[in-house]
Amino acid sequence: MNRQHLRPIWTARLSLVVVVAAAASGCAAEAAAPPSAIPAQTAPDPSSGEQTDGHTAADEPVLYAVQSGPLGVVVTGGDGRLLYRSEADDTAPPSSRCTDACSRLWQPFTVASGQQPVLLGVDPALVGTLIRSDGTTQVTLAGWPLYRDPADPGGLTDSGRHGENDQWFVVTPTGDRATAPS
């Protein structure tokens, strides 16, 4: 594999680590301006082997806590696309009510059976899984099943579905609904 294809991916991941570390240490308030998104050059390059479904090229599912700008610190997959939760789901025990047609509009964020996602800025104690009615294993955060919006353009840009029907919300690293600052 050409090393030039890997450079933007590793640069993006290193930048993401620095942003998350700065935010966690309280240094983010001292920065001139918080990053509003992962830079455009960090989008996965199809020729690099990087996947675009929230997993790495090695098919490792990823959950990153990142500063999104208007929604604050939120959770994304490894491709930088926002993850959502549904108010219709249950957390005790975790269960998904989004099946059939719903799961085509809101794709469950899944892992292989027994696999755990790579975490950055997300407390491992809050991450779990549930077995869906179709037998797939869906990732949960603080008990909330996680979903992806297939229309998400990436770059931490909400496709306008945050708060849709007062049910679908971008999720924070604690499993809470993201809220725009007032």
From TrEMBL:
Where is the segment annotated Disordered? 33-55, 153-182
Compositional bias per record (Low complexity), positions renumbered to this chain: 33-44
Q: Which domain of life is it from?
A: Bacteria
Annotated keywords: Signal
Q: What is this protein called?
A: Lipoprotein with Yx(FWY)xxD motif
Respond yes or no to whether keyword Signal is given for this record.
yes
Where does the UniProt annotation place the signal sequence? 1-31
